[in-house]
Design goal:
4-stranded mixed beta sheet, 3 domains, elongated, alpha+beta, 374 residues, 14 helices, 37% helix, BirA Bifunctional Protein, domain 2
Length: 374
Amino acid sequence: MNIINSALRREERAIFDLRELYEQSGYRKYKMSKFEEYDLYLANKRFLPGGQVVTFTDANGRLMALKPDVTLSIAKNVPTVPTEPEKVYYNENVYRTPRGADEFKEIMQVGLECIGSVDLYSEYEVVSLACRSLQKLSDENVMALSHMGFVAGLMGACALPETLNEKLLRCIGHKNAHEVARLCREGGVSDENAKKLVSLTSLCGELNETIAAAEKIADNDKMCAALDELSALSRVLCDEEKRAIRLDFSVVNDLAYYNGLIFQGFIGGVPSAILSGGRYDNLMEKLSKRCQAIGFAVYLNELERCDTDEPDYDVDVLLLYDAGADVAKLAGAVKMLSQNGQRVRVQTVPSETLRARQTVHLGEGGLEILETND
């Protein structure tokens, strides 16, 4: 038995696999503090998956926050005008309330950011790495891809107030066609544009087929430019990557921060997105950075929901010994049992809670097997 594989949880093994993947593509590890000044998160609450932040006052009287997000910290600390691309990955714990939860959790998060001048290759590289990240996590995986430029172009043609736009985005994201239609009536949207907005809730499928379907409702430069970008990306992606991608225009995010490609990744056994990312030039502009950015995060805590790799036993051998036993013989027995990679627990009394594959006793006559469970 490989003692490393048996001791590591699934999410811990995933960290090693993903780190290797990102380093192979030239991304360097980014290390940061667990804390940031609260003002950063207060000014960008809408960018956070949850609005709540754990705060405390430090020794200098500053209001600090336990890090609820990594992207904001990286974006804040890059140069205003990077002289070369910042390509970094991270493995950090963040502290926030997950969607649907009512208490703070420590969430293990791995991800990467590409910041600077983002061209077609940069977008392809990040999307490809997102696809390959999902493959590392599970053979059953799919990525839902969208483009905020297409959605923003259509909503911009409707000239709705921002508050109504936000409501529409939420309903589109929930695939709630009925509520989208109601909000369009409330906002006085034309029947033609209302029909197009409703169609976003179900405009999804194979990448090239869905681009062709979307072209039928694209009637302004912004929408057409988004489809051109998606078509260019499709031509670069390999067949395996395209098979794993569904173009789904109901995948949306905050227009104040995201402006281009966005995507979510799913694996079998986990009901919510385990990967989320996209192009966030608008955030960089909001932070007074004159550059572009794209990246994603993998939420490894979600693996707990489908972790079928939990070992059947806590240890391979439970070694019991009597008070006054020869410690040298005991140490020798442990060394012998451990040489083939077995996990050995040593104690004087049997355990009522420990799951041991085998229980042995060291007595005067040597090792005696008391119980075997397989």
